[in-house]
Amino acid sequence: MENNTFFKALTLDERIELSDSTKHISPIKQAYPYWRKLLEVERQEFNDILEKYLNIHSDDLDKLYEIEDTDDSMLIPNTIWSSDLKKLYYNANYSINKNVLENLETKLFYPILIPIINLFIDKFEEYPFNYMINENCYLELINQIADEVLQIFIKTLILELNLEKKSGKLKGKTSEEGYNEFCKKLYEQKYLCELIDEYPVLFKLISDKVEGFTKLVTTILFALKNDTNELKKSMLISSEFDGKINNLITNAGDTHNGGFSVSIIELDNSDKIIFKPRDLNIDTKFNDFLHWINNQTDSDIYLKDVTILNKESYGWSEFIEHQTVNDSNELHNFYNNLGAMLAVLYILNATDFHYENLIAYQQYPVLIDLESLIHHSVEKNDKLTESNAINEAADFLKYSVLSIGILPHRKISINNQTFDISGINNTENQVIPFENEKIENHYTDNIKISKFYGKMRQAANTPYKSNEEFKIESFMGDITDGFKKIYTMFLNNKNLVKKELDKFKNVKVRKILRDTMNYSRLMKLSLHPDFLRNQIDRELLFLRLEKQEKSNKKILQSEIQQMIMGDIPTFYSYTDKPDIYTHKEKLEKRIFGVSGLDIINKKIDNLSFNDLKNQTHLIESMILEYLPNQNKKLNSIVKSTDEKNVLEQIEQIADLILNSSLQHEYSDKELIWIGLNMDGINEENWKFSVSDLSLYDGNTGIALFFAYLWKVTNNEKYKIAAYKTIKPILLIMEDLFEGEKLTIGAFEGVSSPIYALHHLGKVFQDKGLIDKCFYFTKQLDRYIDLDRIFDIVGGSSGALLVILNLYEDFQEEWIFNIAEKLSKHIINNAIQTKEGTHWPRIGESSNPYIGFSHGVTGILTALSTYYYYKPQKNIYELIKSGMQYEDSFFSVENCNWYSSHLSSYPIAWCHGSPGILLGRKIISENLESPKIIHDSFLKSYNSITHRENNSNYSLCHGELGLLDILYNLQDFFEVGDQVNSIKENLFLSDIEKQYKNYGLMTGLSGLGYGLLKMYFPNMIPSVISLEKPNLYKEHE
């Protein structure tokens, strides 16, 4: 066995420690581009990441990648894994107990598992614990470790089988015989040696897995033997237990700290008990706190705890079995208790309490994983932004009930289906939003791994049977009632609560710094054969964590070290200290700024009836807005459609928006909102967040509504509101411009405040706002080449329309130069295909969007507007080609364009025929060429006239947006009937409960703005067309 085999399994740090006298082999030239592509970085950024996080320069990889096989100067490391590799390489043991063999023979590629299982058997039998487990338990342990090893092996073995098949070395006549031929090869010592030489990282991982599994099992057995009497006294196990166990399930959670995981032990009397390989002091303190709360309240609320035996380095926990309620009364009690538990978690600043961390035990919600109590995040600095309002709102949201994980948090994923893993939600039949892997064509030489979107099962967090019809909103009153009762008790007993929580001092708690799902998916990817030949490849792959979120250097280094071992990274802190630890050492001092208990004590001080109202509002909002059949975001608000009372109704909307702003000590200068806003630039996903700079659902759009309402009413209140709404955005822009990357679109990006300031400056005749607008425009210039979105909402096409509006009003050459740069950027990134021209979708594998907001139509509209000022033949041809591409999606039968990402023919501004009609109307006018509009333009209007009633009234995908488009199309079509139909269908709704979005395109501001546009069309510019400001009066 050559030294280079061992060398390739070493980490970079281990290689650096070796003697420089080794003779190195540089990686192939293609390696560096491959690594940069892996991390999605250019050369300089690749070098910077290596130097910052791995303490090496990219040139050093030449000396660290491989060594010559003839080089004997390197000392082979004396480690468990190197010893295991030698044992497999020189003396693999293929003989095995008959019962064990029968168990293994059912598994894929079982011959190669035999010597690995013998490694485990040899290690396990060094410990005197065989008498504690019966034959069934012994075989089940072997079954578990075999499955875990096979999971590491499988991709490499399938690759090797395919290589053997392609080279003609498999002689079987059928695919089954071919597979069996390959399995025979797996019995050969020579072939095992070849695999170890080719994939040393793979075999090191397997050695680590076997070693960790052995240590976990023996630790559990040793602990059970020593703790039996204490467990009986604690009533965690029956007094009848005589020391034998029937089963030991070790994969009841992620592995941490060298392969240790939560495990379930089934005793010979059928009792079950949970082993947790961590200090359970936080669990015992939490139990004490629940007991205190139960004694303080005289209501029917009861908070059930979990019996614990803490042994400091590990502990035992009661096994809670999922049991549904017996009747509707118990069901109401469950949600009342859940609301009470939510108040407890709120005061303890908990996080990550998703569906797996809660079990429904009859009418009691029971928390089973308390590691993430007393949470706080890594603070980069004390002051987030220059806006006090934004800072207050961000702080409020960060420590609100939304951060706990119990309340619904719905995302739209595959085929427009919802995905929600919150503690309150039933996960049954949800489509998992990322691809899973499954093996097809078992036991044949056609075996392969395919990808699919799996479905989740009903979890143990639901108190009702899976076949029962259930609506969580029916129990919203129980949840809020329970929350209010316990919150009020805390509010009335602040000093007593602080005294109880003081008992949590010096308690070790886990710190969740990153979504563990990100770790898991990256870990799974690292088991591809490409990353199992040389540890450097795998180590560089793990640097992707740096791209997900900028990381503290020591934390990222520790994450990589733990993942190299095959573990999900974990970090810890102590409740009264601001430092962070791994399971081995203190990693970083004062990384949190303040301790977890400091945050909790501040939270107790801030308890108030106003905060109770705010938190209750959030609970109700999440339940109403995120669950199925609650997606009617914008039902209309006006009682009738005559002009006599419409302004009164619009002002009610404006006043509701003003009253819904977050109240803080700077409210007299800045306004900010917390509501249901778009998550990034994906208008199908939403989250509760602080209103941002966007025109779509942020402060700039709200300010625009206030400004034009002032224009119509001349009510000074709305002018003041517009200034206070735009103020936070003006304060944060300078910091935003210090960043390297910004989106530049009109609805989600830097062009949003430019567009809004242009309008506000004109409407209010405020030169100072125009000067700010010009300054931001000049700053935008340096981000153009970095844009990779291109569309109207988030990219350069939206910016182009905004900048051309400025040029139209001010005729400054420097403004047009920016517009020219934007147009060239868009043109240079066009993709030509046989179907026509489109633009790329970053990070997406599906077809490019068509339509106005994110698609080809919006981009062509922007280019046509530039063409209006500077006609160029290549732009004209590009526009024709783009429309040709979109028309390849046109259905004559549906009179509409097919949106592949929605799998439908939508009828809205954002997607589908209305937005495309709007764009093509503008294009034909800009090009002064009505002939450029294809037959599809005329036919598609039928999709609007024959549409089903839409209960949504938003500008983005509702009736008010459609109404604006109809006004634009009145020179092409007879739109009167459609306009009247929309007006007549407006009706009054309970706006305070229905609306949790205050933004322009999908929220209350848009509703008000759309009504202004409906009744004062000459005074109000079309925001969905990104029209420039106008100062017309209504009858001019």
Automatic annotation (TrEMBL):
Domain Lantibiotic biosynthesis protein dehydration: residue ranges: 199-573
GO molecular function, a single term: metal ion binding
Pfam families linked to this entry: DUF4135 (PF13575), LANC_like (PF05147)
Any single GO CC term annotated in Swiss-Prot or TrEMBL for this entry: plasma membrane
SMART domains, per database record: LANC_like (SM01260)
Sequence positions that bind Zn(2+): 910, 956-957
CDD domains the UniProt entry points to: LanM-like (cd04792)
Signal peptide boundaries: none
Sorted UniProt keywords: Metal-binding, Zinc
Record-linked InterPro entries: 6hp_glycosidase-like_sf (IPR012341), LANC-like (IPR007822), Lant_dehyd (IPR025410), Lanti_2_LanM (IPR017146)
Annotated GO biological process: carbohydrate metabolic process; peptide modification
PANTHER family: LANC-LIKE PROTEIN (PTHR12736), LANC-LIKE PROTEIN 3 (PTHR12736:SF7)
Name recorded for this polypeptide: Type 2 lantipeptide synthetase LanM
Species: Staphylococcus gallinarum
Designated gene of the protein: lanM
